[in-house]
Write a structure and sequence with these properties.
By secondary structure, this protein is mainly beta. Helices cover 0% and strands 50% of the residues. It folds into two domains: 127 residues, Immunoglobulins (Immunoglobulin-like), CATH 2.60.40; 308 residues, 7 Propeller (Methylamine Dehydrogenase, Chain H), CATH 2.130.10.10. It has no helices and 39 strands.
Length: 454
């Protein structure tokens, strides 16, 4: 590609190949001083976190879950959601079914939860199930039975956002996520009726619901925004043997592809540890599922002590936390990364190394070997002057780059690939050989993670 910086050098000596571990990590149950149903979890960094749940439960840790402090929310109502912007400023939604007027009481703290102040939401019979603040003043809440609401004064006053009048527009809202100040998405729906995803392209001034032709049969609990146009959501149906549902868009929410996994259950959350490893809890199924390729393929594992987990979060790539019923609290242990190991490249066959560094910030080096003699593969025996390419493609199989080299001699070569134009995510690359008649993949694919500093 003309807009990429490509450097090709030849090396006939031994090379060092980084052997990276792509195995998943594990979860361990940790002690926590409650047996309540923990419905929400929020960590602002690896140390400071909060859990919230039934009977007014809000608890805080300042050391990554090693010790907890019970905070006084001044209520016995259930706490549905807790969200902190930093170590001091946070909000929580209390469901008031006990006294008139019924609805949401929005709790706020400015001192890390040492004290909480409650304020009734001005609209009755709306129960806020998700909270998102982009700064200390501007925030969003989504509710049941419907509604997306916004504030520009830190939660003192709220205005209902403009939503289109399509068939699926007025459904419960379960999650809200913004990629930047302009592009945002929300998700929700009703079990056994329909799932729905809304999108905004003007900072939330107006929202459009998913075209019913693309809507899944069940609610979408959680969203993950790879960038402004690549989005995925998680949901499913816990009953009657239906599979976990994953929905994805690659064109900014215009069209969607829904895929039901051969794993029974409902995915209640999505937690990305890095650009490729993602986890999701299946609640009462007492399982977690994980993917090492950004949600393309999934594997189930049982939860520790058969706990029912509903929420999880990764404040960074090394720390993860999860919560659920009966006071269940889990801590993530990342996989052990193997050290760099010297490898002697063998003659007589094509070889493609793991790129280094990986994940890729901007540039990365890929080494490969051309064997010393042909024919190398049936039907391709033309030497010299074959065309050799390292081909890069995205998780949907679309080719995004091709690094070409002509007149290459047998031996070890390396190319430097610049990922400046690629959005963050999981990619794959292969070594491809062309002759006058056909092309053949002779090595790979290998996985490449693009994760740039923002």
């Amino acid at each position: 590609m003309a807009n990429r910086s490509i450097r090709i050098t030849t090396c006939l000596l031994l090379v060092f190949i980084q052997s990276l571990s792509f195995a998943q990590g594990s979860w361990v149950r940790e002690s926590i001083p409650t047996s309540r149903f923990l419905k929400s979890i929020c960590f602002v960094d690896s140390l400071y976190g909060w859990v919230a749940g039934d009977s007014g439960t809000i608890m805080h840790t300042a050391n990554g879950g090693a010790a907890w402090t019970v905070q006084n929310a001044q209520t016995s109502n259930n706490i549905e959601y807790v969200y902190f912007l930093n170590r001091n400023l946070g909000w929580a939604s209390e469901f008031n079914y006990t006294t008139v007027p019924y609805g949401t009481i929005l709790l706020k703290t400015t001192n890390g939860g040492a004290t909480w102040q409650g304020q009734p939401f001005p609209v009755e019979n709306i129960f806020m199930s998700c909270i998102l603040f982009t700064d200390s003043l501007h925030g969003w809440m989504g509710g049941k039975p419907n509604g997306i609401y916004k504030t520009s004064d830190g939660g003192t006053s709220w205005t209902q956002a403009l939503i289109d009048t399509s068939t699926l527009a007025f459904f419960p809202v379960l999650d809200i996520a913004f990629y930047n100040q302009q592009y945002g998405y929300a998700s929700g729906g009703i079990l056994d009726v329909a799932g729905v995803i809304w999108r905004t392209k003007n900072g939330g001034n107006s929202w459009d619901a998913i075209d019913p032709a693309y809507a899944p049969a069940d609610e979408v609990h959680k969203l993950h925004l790879f960038d402004s146009v690549n989005v995925m959501g998680a949901g499913g149906d816990p009953d009657f043997g239906y599979g976990v549902g994953m929905i994805r868009s690659t064109d900014g929410g215009v069209t969607w592809i829904y895929h039901e996994l051969p794993i029974q259950g409902n995915a209640y959350d999505l937690g990305f540890r890095n650009a490729s490893e993602v986890w999701s809890p299946l609640g009462a199924k007492r399982k977690l599922i994980y993917s090492l390729d950004a949600g393309v393929t999934w594997t189930p594992v049982p939860t520790p002590d058969s706990t029912s987990i509903y929420k999880l979060t990764f404040p960074d790539s090394l720390h993860g936390y999860a919560a659920g019923k009966d006071g269940a609290f889990l801590k993530y242990h990342p996989p052990v990364v193997q050290a760099v190991t010297p490898v002697t490249l063998k003659q007589g066959g094509f070889f493609l190394s793991q790129n280094y560094p990986n994940p890729v910030n901007h540039g990365t080096t890929i080494r490969f070997e051309i064997p010393s003699a042909g024919p190398w593969i049936s039907g391709i025996s033309h030497w010299p002057n074959p065309l050799i390419q390292v081909v890069v493609f995205d998780i949907l199989g679309k080719e995004v780059a091709a690094i070409a080299g002509n007149d290459m001699l047998p031996g070890v070569h390396e190319v430097t690939f610049e990922a400046t134009d690629l959005p963050d995510g999981c990619y794959f690359y292969s070594l491809r050989l062309y002759d006058v008649r056909q092309s053949v993949t002779v090595a790979g694919p290998r996985r490449m993670i693009v994760l740039k500093n923002r």
